[in-house]
Specification:
single chain; alpha/beta; binds uridine 5'-triphosphate
Length: 318
């Protein structure tokens, strides 16, 4: 269990409703944007310096007080679960290397990891539907397996608090350049109730549009891969027909709930978000995190600055 899991998980919001204490990480997708690397290696296990992306995501959950994590996996992806298993053979070998031993043990002690399989990749909503028997009718967090936020600028605690206060669906948005709206799900919003303002920059969601052209976009607020959902989402997923791409979309199930009166709110996140779902974002993530590391950041930054200015990089001297 996480060292963080004791305190906020038992917290209760001002409404008297308990906060979500379980997280679901849908990670069964085919990761086509990262082929061929992801033919045999799940994108969730691509390393960012010396930890797989998935570990940063589980750490984000445990930092918010969530110690129970369900990984939704698929064919060829069971190695994701192995990462959190105990390795007594490795521990024995590392007995005289305390730092490495601690790093290995940390992965085993982070959280209680559970797993289930999505037998066919029929969409994010379909994947989340498999969490029902683990989660029951309690609210829960969903963390997409290819994106995470900077630990010093957390997002999830505010989302958990907001969900406990409203009892509804809670999303997170980040601002994109107006020209880039066609790459994201974009929300239309209105001001939230004044009594929610102590939680952060909260908006009420009035609709969602998938990948609109800039001229059709209702805002420049794009959907981030974090959700806190009420248990009623499972019934909504069952009632959701395949939508865009023939997939059962989580967005459509949330829209169903919203149209039936469930409040939908979002936190506008202004911290640092790392998107590792495709090569450019992944490279940017590795460079940023490596640059900030206490153990190798100074040397890496020095090398990077020299490289960027060198002929080899096609930089300013060429
Ligand atoms: P993406 O839309 O990023 O799809 O899914 P993907 O397969 O991961 O990657 P691309 O677009 O083909 O490159 C968003 C999240 O939903 C999960 C993915 O694993 C990812 O975390 N997902 C998607 C499932 O678990 N099952 C699905 O059927 C679809």
């Amino acid at each position: 269990m996480s060292e963080h899991s004791a305190n906020p998980s038992s917290a209760t919001a001002a409404s008297g409703r308990p906060r979500a204490v379980k997280a679901v990480i849908p990670a069964a997708g085919l990761a086509t944007r990262f082929l061929p690397a992801t033919k045999a290696v799940p994108k969730e296990l691509l390393p960012v310096v010396d930890r797989p992306v998935l570990q940063y995501i589980v750490e984000e959950a445990t930092q918010a007080g969530i110690g129970d994590v369900l990984l939704i996996t698929g064919r060829g992806k069971t190695s994701m679960v192995d990462h959190f298993d105990r390795r007594p053979d490795l521990e024995e070998r590392l007995a005289k290397k305390p730092e490495l031993l601690a790093a290995v043990k940390r992965t085993e002690e982070l959280a209680a990891i559970y797993t289930c399989r999505q037998p066919e990749q029929l969409g994010l909503g379909h994947a989340v539907g498999f969490a029902e028997s683990h989660v029951g009718d309690a609210p829960f967090a969903v963390l997409l397996g290819d994106e995470f936020v900077k630990p010093a600028e957390p997002l999830l605690p505010a989302m958990l608090e907001l969900q406990a206060r409203t009892g509804g669906v809670v999303l997170a948005f980040f601002e994109v350049d107006a020209a880039e709206t066609s790459r994201y799900g974009i929300a239309s919003v209105e001001p939230a109730e004044a009594e929610l303002s102590d939680i952060g920059e909260v908006v009420r969601v009035t609709g969602m549009v998938e990948k609109p052209k800039p001229e059709d976009a209702p805002s420049n607020l794009a959907v981030l891969g974090r959700y806190v959902l009420p248990g009623t989402i499972f019934d909504a997923i069952r009632r959701t027909e395949p939508g865009s791409g023939g997939e059962i979309q989580l967005t459509d199930a949330m829209e169903l709930l919203r149209n039936e009166g469930t409040p939908v709110h979002a936190i506008v996140y202004r911290g640092t978000r790392y998107d590792t779902g495709m090569p450019l974002g992944y490279l940017q993530t590795v460079v940023q995190i490596a640059s900030e590391r206490d153990d190798l950041g100074a040397e890496f930054r020095k090398w990077l600055a020299e490289f960027v200015n060198s002929d080899a990089s096609g930089g300013p001297n060429t």
